[in-house]
Design a protein that fits this description.
Elements: H1 9-16, H2 37-44, H3 52-64, H4 67-73, E1 78-82, E2 88-92, H5 100-108, E3 112-123, E4 126-138, E5 142-148, E6 152-156, E7 162-165, E8 170-177, E9 180-186, E10 188-191, E11 196-207, E12 210-220, E13 223-227, E14 238-241, E15 245-248, E16 250-255, E17 260-267, E18 270-276, E19 285-290
Antiparallel strand pairs: 1-2, 2-3, 3-4, 4-5, 4-6, 5-8, 6-7, 7-10, 8-9, 9-11, 10-11, 11-12, 12-13, 12-14, 13-16, 14-15, 16-17, 17-18, 18-19
Helix pairs in contact: 1-2
Amino acid sequence: MKKIIVLSAVTLALILQGCGSNSKSSSGDAPKTTVSNELKSFAKGLTDNKDMTSMVKKSSSSSSSSQTEIKAKIYQKESIESCKDGGTIKTTSDTDLENENLILEQIRSGGLEVTIATDECIEDGVKSNGSIALTVKSTEFDTMLLTFLEDTTFEDLESSELITVSKNSTIKIEEVSADSEKITESIKASSSTGESYESINLVYYDTMDSSYEISGKIVRDGVTYSVDEQYNSSKTPMVFENYEDLVSGTAKYYNEQNHHITITVVAKNQIKISVDTDNDGDIDEEETIAL
């Protein structure tokens, strides 16, 4: 499965920012409906295909090619090719891969290890510079591990937004069925627009039209949000229409103050943010916003 889902953990993290207010309505009162303008601004970009993590994954996928292309192309220790719209991509390996059977055998056993370096490489409207170590393994299904060997940049040429992914960030993609992937990421990234994002052992599943998180943490502006593992998000995945419009789903988190946050899609591209500030089962803050 080659689709990279548009909704990602970072967009939910942006929504969560500002939700953990200490204000609490008195017993029996309606939930306080206050959401910061900054939070609303972040939330309105929920399904924007230029979202930070979405662009990183899309660019990483483009610059490293598909697993099939890697298996077919790399028959020597080093090769330099032109990118689709300018710049170059250099592929190197410690193993002399002259024999296609050797390549496939290595993928099936210990794994094929390749380093991919981009220099002003432009593909699909994104320019990348940096280097990534790629390990491909295959048994019944394929597994791909991306490790950033240096700070690597991705620039959206349409918006001029520049994303920097920090050295040692990792993305592991495991095919679990013909149309489903398990993704584990530990990423530090920052944007030229001033946004920052970190995921810590964040594990989630992508299908052709949905995505749901099962564990891990998200750090946004110094605040850590944890995926609520007590909630079975596979029952209410974030579902997309036409790969862009968010049409249904629920996700739950809690922050360092044990404020529990629920995000529910209530209509196409409309979400309700509900906050239980003292974890007593009552909603203390709530607001519905359009994306």
